[in-house]
Amino acid sequence: QPPGAAPDTLDAIIVGAGFAGLYMLHRLRQSGLRAMVLEAGPDVGGTWYWNRYPGARCDVESVVYSYSFSDELVREWNWSEKFATQPEILAYIRFAADRLDLRRDIRFNTRVTAAHHDGAANLWRVQTEDGREIAAHFCIMATGCLSSSRLPDIPGISAFKGQVIQSAHWPDEPVDFTGKRVGIIGTGSSGIQIIPIVAAQAGHTHVFQRTAAYSVPARNAPLAPDYRAAVKVGHGEIRRQLRAGLIHGNSDLRVPGEEPVPPGRTAAEMTPAEREAALEERWRRGGAWYMFTFSDQVVDRQANEIAADFIRRKIRQIVKDPAVAEKLCPTSYAIGAKRICVDTNYYATFNRPDVTLVDHADAPIRAVTEKGIRTDGGEYELDVIIFATGFDAMTGALLAMDIRGRDGLCLRDKWQDGPRTYLGLGLAGFPNLFTITGPGSPSVFSNVVVSIEQHVEWIGDCLDHMKSIGATRIEATEQAETDWVRHVGEVAHATLIPTTRSWYVGANIPGKPNVFMIYVGGVGPYRDICNRVAAAGYAGFTLSATDSTGKE
Ligand code: NA7
Question: What CA–CA distances, in Å, run from 490 to 84, 493, 503?
């Protein structure tokens, strides 16, 4: 305990009980620290608790979208499919929480509204919606990158007499679409998963598309028992490669039964026939790692266009009505500049007679009315409207809380021109506050579970180090933060990724500052940087000890 602290004061409060918060709790317990998790929902799971829409799956393959830190968990859990469904992922997270005995330190149905740093006591005072205050020396935000969903500011939504459903807040009870007229707004990863399932059941489905997305087939399938066994046997090596950023998904794993996809070369190094064969091979195997067919795909316009055009040709082959196919062809941005979607039967769904594509270019949405959706091309009468319109990514969940640091500095003020962090882990002006996969880290531009584990372990090691040297306060310096923000921007702008308006830059939220929020240099290089920072005594952070009055 630091001098002056009440003996029962917690060492850490962790906000959020998803993949990040759960492992953080486990890791802090290993260091003998007392931590409590505060979770808004009634159960563990975070985004995998709320996103329970039909067809919801992870677009990263199951055997690598799971904790790698525990041999026990790897040994005991069996994934049934290549891409796990949301219910299976939630069951896995529940299993991990129970197996590690985490629930006794989690308070459910507890939404955090504010977190203020009390400099004199060197404590974070965290307030919850039910009016309680809990104090701890450290506050760790495990609030997720895609957890703050949003309804668009289309006028009239509340006037609609039918049912309104948000993909990220799907009702508990299954919704019966039989015979119903359904409108779906949004054709990102969520919409593309929902549309084929709903269309198969509904009377008629109208898909309201604003921007056509690039989507590749999942080629989902049950996992064969010998494949699963091989993954378990090879787990140590798989973990090593995942952490170094050498492999991304099943297609790259060196397990019996399937040859790994050869590493990409630049498009220019390949003949047209070789390029076509490489694209066809990735398409045949499925999954978003199509993005790396060519090693220069996200940096070279020509390489990118070759990969993009291949998908357009596939769309034209699959979709029978040439006019509909053209509207589904993405042309307005580089492939990979928004997250590539992974689907099952998405494009083929538009061959159904009971599915209509309403494209923004022909009929932009003007309003939701009592009866349905009004566009410039007419009014569509509907029984149900599904909004799959995305998230206030990276910063939404953090800025929903009133977070105040040293001398009352407000996070909303600090970030008014865009998020600023050091390594996506710490913030100047906010002592003893950590963000897991915060803005400025690889976060969603990686297998996020791998990134979560790296942050959790780094934070855990940092707190061990502080204890060992008697430090009670850590804070990123302004200079380190400024340098990191610049570096994140430079790395991103060397690629095609910031060339389009996406949620990566906050462009999907009206009024949000447009700043590129993700480190896209890769999880391997990023891990090396974080390790070097730690080895240099947490370079770029100021570590200090406070006396009984809180003074340094
Ligand atoms: P996304 O990828 O942000 O997709 C949201 C979709 O909703 C996208 O097609 C948007 O079109 C569309 N949208 C948003 N606002 C509107 C309005 N006002 N009118 C019409 N269409 C609109 O969210 P998802 O939930 O699908 O996926 C998020 C991540 O979750 C995904 O990347 C995976 O990592 C998992 P736009 O492209 O902005 O024109």
Answer: 35, 5, 18
User: Cα-flanking dihedrals φ and ψ of residue 502, to 5°?
Assistant: -135, 180
Mean pLDDT over each residue of the chain, to the nearest integer:
93
For ligand 1, the distance from its centroid to the CA atom of residue 261, given in whole angstroms, is 30
**Alpha carbon of 529 to ligand 1 centroid (Å):** 32
Ligand 1 neighbourhood includes 146 CB (under 6 angstroms):
yes
How many CB atoms within 10 Å of residue 10?
A: 23
* Rounded distance from Cα 193 to ligand 1 centre (Å): 12
The 8-class DSSP code of residue 159 comes to G
For ligand 1, the distance from its centroid to the CA atom of residue 74, given in whole angstroms, is 33
Q: 189 C-alpha vs ligand 1 centroid, how far in Å?
A: 7
Q: Which of the pair, 287 or 324, is modelled with greater confidence?
A: 324
DSSP, collapsed to helix, strand or coil, labels residue 476 as strand
> Look-up: residue for tokens 């979770």?
39
DSSP bridge partners of 543: 474
The pLDDT of 514-534, averaged and rounded, is 94
CA–CA separation, 432 and 426 (whole Å): 8
Ligand 1 pocket, residue 363 CB under 6 Å: no
Q: Is pLDDT at 4 greater than 70 in this prediction? A: no
Q: Model confidence at 150, in pLDDT bands (50, 70, 90)?
A: confident
Closest-CA residue, ligand 1 atom 10, reads 186
DSSP 126: E
Confirm whether the ipTM is greater than 0.85: yes
* Tokens of residue 332, six digits: 């307005």
What residues form DSSP beta bridges with 410? 404
Q: What is the DSSP letter of 497?
A: G
Q: What residue type is 100 in one-letter code?
A: L
Using CA atoms, how far apart are residues 33 and 27, in angstroms rounded to an integer?
9
Residue recorded with tokens 């997720």: 144
Q: Which of 389, 444, 449, 501 to mutate to test the pocket of ligand 1 (most atoms within 8 A of CB)?
A: 389
Residue with tokens 């000890």, as numbered in its chain: 545
Amino acid at 535: A
**CA proximity to 409, closest of 475, 479, 489, 486:** 475
Backbone φ/ψ region at 144: left (φ over 0), alpha (ψ -120 to 50), beta: left
pLDDT number for residue 244: 85
Distance CA 250, CA 233 (A): 15
Question: Does the beta carbon of 154 lie inside 6 Å of ligand 1?
Answer: yes
Rounded CA gap, 89 and 41, in Å? 16
Mean pLDDT of 245-268: 64
Q: Are 289 and 481 in contact (CB under 8 A)?
A: no
Long-range contacts of 536-539 (CB under 8 A, 24+ apart): 538/462, 538/465, 538/474, 539/480
Q: Give the closest residue to 246 by CA, choosing from 531, 526, 522, 62.
A: 522
Please state the rounded mean pLDDT for residues 28-49.
97
Burial class (CB in 10 A: 0-12, 13-18, 19+), 120: exposed
pLDDT exceeds cutoff 70 at 5: no
Q: Are 545 and 471 in contact (CB under 8 A)?
A: yes
Dihedral sign (CA 496, 436, 110, 411)? negative
d(CA 361, CA 364): 6
DSSP lists the bridge partners of residue 368 as 373
